[in-house]
Amino acid sequence: xxxxxxxxxxxxxxxxxxxxxxxxxxxxxxxxxxxxxxxxxxxxxxxxxxxxxxxxxxxxxxxxxxxxxxxxxxxxxxxxxxxxxxxxxxxxxxxxxxxxxxxxxxxxxxxxxxxxxxxxxxxxxxxxxxxxxxxxxxxxxxxxxxxxxxxxxxxxxxxxxxxxxxxxxxxxxxxxxxxxxxxxxxxxxxxxxxxx
Length: 196
Hints:
Blueprint: H1 6-16, E1 26-30, H2 43-50, E2 54-58, H3 66-88, E3 90-95, E4 103-109, E5 115-122, E6 144-149, E7 165-167, H4 168-174, E8 187-195
Helix pairs in contact: 1-2
């Protein structure tokens, strides 16, 4: 699809991923407000959505703020560090954007389940509901995983999950509490999990 609206891309990419691997799905970061829908979405959210496919840029650098350029540079480097896992790994659909729960989540893991990348998106208010924990398929319950926040908006203030070590059993059955990092709509996380 030529639609680059990050919110709509959640649905497009979720559906396409039933037929095509991430390496075949071009996912571009474009300007905000989006030229097709007029929706304004933060640069981090746009990147985190596009990073779950084959990341590309469809934005004029001359129209970007210095902060957006700096974030883009860091996000592209982060993507390159996990690109093989995303493009060649196994995909696990965790929370569907179609479930109307104001969030979505998916992850990719390599064959050994030693390396994984988790994407979590919050798209709306939860209207008094507690944010559910994200249960991760694609991890080995007998391994421990160190979490790294790949795309913090401010590198000196990564997610409260950054650096934590969590057992695969907890990740798989109890789930990961992301509520502290996703406190409002248009917030998102891209986390790298590495087995220790």
